[in-house]
Amino acid sequence: MRFIKYSSIAFITFVILAGIAIPMVPQPQSWLEFPIIPGLEEKARNIFFHVPIAWVSVLGFIFALYYGFRYLRTKDFDYDIKSVSSAGLGMMFCILATVTGSIWAKFNWGSFWNWDPRETSIFILLLIYGAYFALRSALGQEEVRARLSAVYSILAGLTAPFFIFIMPRIVGGLHPGAKGDTAGSTPMAQLHMPPNMRFVFLIGIIGFSLLFVWLLNMRVRIARIEYQISKKEN
User: Fold this and answer.
1) Torsion on CA atoms 148, 154, 156, 160, rounded to nearest 10
2) Domains of the chain: which residue ranges?
3) Is 78 exposed, middle or buried (0-12, 13-18, 19+ CB in 10 A)?
4) How many CA atoms lie within 13 A of 128 on its CB side?
5) Predicted pLDDT at 185
6) Of the residues 93, 108, 131, 167, which has the maximum number of CB atoms within 10 A of its CB?
């Protein structure tokens, strides 16, 4: 896991440096220059952070779904630990995606929150997984908590792709890629961007994904230790 840790840090550091340092010019002459994207200009640099973070939040929710399913099949409490750890990281990255998206919205649309369909969908996801953790905290019996949480994580995980990828595209809104958008989609959605921007963007996706795997491993190890301590105390 050390490789994942340090490679993730290296990848994300590269994205940050590239996002900040590479100039954006109307007609790029070299690989070290990004073209100006109409309507976004310098704000397009947020692509390298906001989108990978949103992607990782979906990973967290899908992992929680998978481990919840595995718990229901095996009754192995370790899968409950992995499921709740994945959901927690998904929630954290979902909050970060909301924050970075709100900052972007402030510069593009004039306010931090506009109840755009994509903003609304991510807000609903936050409510869904907030209720998930409220459910876990309300249940004292270990087996009941693990079983109900597993069922909830499966149902919630099935909604995540809809709210992230489908709903914002079938409803009209301010966000690029919404229904009726003349541009059709965001440049990063279909990777319709210059090669050097696509390279940095994909490095960001890979780096943040590896960071998620490392954080999940660390969170699961800590949760296992906490579980063993609680067993000894009881």
Assistant:
1) 160
2) 2-233
3) middle
4) 20
5) 47
6) 93
